[in-house]
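Appendix B. One record, verbatim.
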Amino acid sequence: MSAFGPALFVRRTDGKDLDEREQQAVVEMVRQATRKLGVTDEHDEAIEPRRRDYGETEAGALCVLLYSSYSYYGMPEEVMADQNETWKELGMKIAREVEAAAPSTYRFDCYTIED
């Protein structure tokens, strides 16, 4: 059975690629934002965002998986749709924290991916 979860996709506003050092810095900013916001998973445990290779789908973007859940797969479609929206809102809330730390540097998207 697969796990799914919210992923934050980060790109530079100037279109340049994020080098390794900058990617690590962005992941750390995401981690700090989740701690500041007190983000937890469905088991009420603190999450540990991590880099995730998401290949060609989001070429040029850094993918940060916020966390993953095995319960998503068995949800009815309408519940999945609600969960997707909830996860997107969470990702964009975290993105606003990163934006505050690095104004006008990055643009963000968030949606559910398979882990």
